[in-house]
Amino acid sequence: MASAAAAGPIEPSSDAAVKRPEVRGKFLFAGDFKLWVRGVTYGTFRPDKEGNEYNSRPVVERDFAQMVANGVNTVRVYSVPPRWLLDVAAERGLRVMVGLPWEQHVAFLEDRRVTEDIAKRVREGVRRCAGHPALLCYAVGNEIPASIVRWYGPRRVEHFISILCELAKTEDPGCLVTYVNYPTTEYLELPFVDLLSFNVYLEQQESLIRYLKRLHNLAGPRPLLMAEIGLDSLSQGQPRQADVLEWQLRTTFASGCCGAFVFSWTDEWYRGGHDIEGWEFGLTTRDRLPKPALEAVRNVFQNDILPCEHRWPRISVVVCSFNGAATIRDTLKGIQEIEYPDFEVIVVDDGSTDQTAAIARKFSVRLIQTMNQGLSSARNVGLETATGEIIAFTDDDARPDPHWLTFIALAFEGSDHAGIGGPNIPPAGDGRIADCVANAPGGPVHVLLTDDVAEHIPGCNMAFCKERLQAIGGFDPQYRTAGDDVDVCWQLQERGWTIGFSAAAFVWHHRRNSIRAYWKQQVGYGRAEALLEQKWPQKYNSCGHVHWAGRLYGAGLTRALGPRRRIYHGTWGCALFQSVYEPAPGLLRSLALMPEWYLLIAGLALLASLGIYWPPLRIFIVPLAVAVFLPVAQATANAAATPINAMASRLDRLKLLALTVMLH
Q1: Element (H or E) spanning 150, and its range?
Q2: Average pLDDT, the chain
């Protein structure tokens, strides 16, 4: 089974060209076409006598034609364009990221009239562009200065940005919204934006690689877009500008970003009432003459944006299933669509009594049927059968992204890791209960020691070097339904090997769609936890709780109430990269998160109920109320902060909130 590994400049079908972009996991899609943003920024320009900020239509038509000829498919503008500019873009097959400008470099929250005027102009700007087929997304802000954010505090600024996003969604339902951030305010938490956008100017490749890994973890399950990258040719020289832009773009795409905008199309630049002449970031001069950088950008945009001219390791994809007929068809369809040049698919049917084997036979896979011996034994069968250098495991209720194996291979190529894992994202459309289960505790999460080194990767998305997996004897057969992934990770680390993490190597993972199924899953996890504690007592404390050295990532994590973060702004608040520190909660703040807390609630409830017979025991009603309130408040706070609730309607938000709290 083979397919192209790289994502080349495939032209979308006419159907995809008119479909609105939508977010699917870490990438953008138009219909079934994955939309890689190959962009340049355009403007701002000196307004003419009529206030037009985009020159004349003939100038824009020539610019857009030249962009398309050089592989550009998206344009970022910093002010609301006239409708005719969007029409010209649509005629050329370009999409447009529309900036909604407002006074973000002043104390905009001081006067209610100012905020109301900003909201009004955002509404009007969206109305002017609403529904246009050339629209990619709206940017509701761009680089609010760190001094302004510090003055008001991040929470007030985050709330104001959320209001602008909701206004845009109201005026143009179905649109995508983003806020363009930059390193100095990377700590802003914006779960309500559809994609995370950053302006990043780093001139050393290793620094950019490290920072992109950090940004991917900030983005979580959403796409990461580089809204500006570039280099000044006036100070650095045109040859260096070309060299840097080429590796900046290749590094950006190889990291798993959904795209990038080069700043800028031309040296012509107007800002703050003046023509800017001290910088020359353009791919063309003010007279639209091409620089060497334009050819460098064209080499990336018109060819494969992911590496393709080197040896790709053979990968064996192993899917183990026990009575997975309800979901395995979707899994195998997703694997069939993987774009990678050299891989095989092995399905191990672990004694299923449903149609699992019959479904698997309809696909180009190697089917192995065994007696039911449990998940670990099935995975060992796949390991023994595999012919690949790398063994990639996924579950029968997961569907990989088409470039899943590409990003796994890239992560192995640039490291000496024994294993590589990636995110698992719940797909839309599984129902309200599945949505809430995805935001409830007990789901498959990854644990990271750094931005790209993991302590644990879930079994639905994990890949290992075959030799090293065989060196530890494969999977321990005592883990029949769960726990095998944790055990394998700990065994590899005990040998001194490391496990990597690639944010772009993701799979869709269906969550349980009934409370009964969710309960059954948690019971299985509990049994696996008991086996892990017996085998790895040094990993557990005296209360039987596992001690992770890294940080847990994923939805449904139980976080303690109270202040969770502290922002380091640097000396005089001038640090270029202002970081968030989240210290581990102390014992008192963690009590309500422990299973033992529910035993306390049960004990207090028993004592309070006995007050019917002996009135003095009614005094326990008050501590019972407090004991119940704390986990409910904690669950409410976590559920309200999840992206699934951030931009839902108010009624849906309340329904999802109530069910998620119950599952907590």
Answers
A1: helix 146-152
A2: 88
Q: For the CA atoms of 97, 103, 104, 109, what is the dihedral angle to 10 degrees?
A: -130
The token pair at 300 is: 């990336």
Contact 597, 545 (CB under 8 A): no
Token pair belonging to 181: 């951030």
Q: What is the rounded CA–CA span in Å between residue 608 and residue 620? A: 5
Each residue's pLDDT tens digit, 312-349: 999 999 999 999 999 999 999 999 999 999 999 999 99
The distance of Cα 510 from the centroid of its chain, to the nearest Å, equals 17
d(CA 233, CA 506): 37
Each residue of 339-375: pLDDT tens digit? 999 999 999 999 999 999 999 999 999 999 999 999 9
Is the Cβ–Cβ distance between 457 and 499 less than 8 Å?
Answer: yes
pLDDT digits (tens, 9 = 90+) for 634-648: 776 666 555 544 444
Separation CA 343–CA 340 (nearest Å): 7
Measure the CA–CA gap between 43 and 590, rounded to whole angstroms.
51
Q: Are 56 and 32 in contact (CB under 8 A)?
A: no
Radius of gyration over every alpha carbon of the chain, rounded to an integer in angstroms: 27
Helical H runs in 302-387?
328-336, 356-360, 375-385
| Residue 34 near residue 28, CB atoms below 8 Å | yes
* CA contacts within 13 A on the Cβ side of 203: 8
CA distance 382 to 373: 13
407 residue type, one letter: F
